[in-house]
Amino acid sequence: MDDQQLRTLQDYMNNRLPDGDWADKPAVPASTVTATNTSEHPMFVEVAGGTVTVVKVDGVTIGARTSGMFYVRPGSTIAITYSVAPTWQWFYAY
């Protein structure tokens, strides 16, 4: 494969990958209840607002962070412990 063929293939594949906000993302569940990434793609989950005390991915507390972006692989879970519900957006990670 020459360089031009490789670039053409890369452009084709990049245009086929989804981007932006995942339209079928789960709603924010009740406090401590897990939500599963049921897409075929890794996601960045942006947690914002609310009164959050813990964020767990696959049952593991993610340090002291209670907001920001969290990486969630396909089939993995995210759970948020809160007293006031935050909002979230799910973005394709590539």
Helix content: 10-25%
Along the chain, the helix and strand elements come as HEEEEEEE
CATH topology: Jelly Rolls
- What count of helical segments does DSSP give? 1
Number of domains: 1
Structure summarized in a few sentences:
With 94 residues, this protein is mainly β.
Explain this structure.
The protein is built from one helix and seven strands. With 94 residues, it is mostly beta strands. It has a single domain (3-92), classed as Jelly Rolls. The strands form two sheets. A four-stranded antiparallel sheet has the order 1-6-3-4, with no helix packed on it. The protein starts with a helix and ends with a strand.
Secondary structure elements and pairings:
Elements: H1 3-16, E1 34-36, E2 43-48, E3 51-57, E4 60-61, E5 68-72, E6 77-84, E7 87-92
Antiparallel strand pairs: 1-6, 2-5, 2-7, 3-4, 3-6
Task: Please describe the structure with a list of short key phrases separated by commas or semicolons.
1 helix, three-stranded antiparallel beta sheet, mainly beta, Jelly Rolls, single chain, 7 strands, 94 residues, four-stranded antiparallel beta sheet
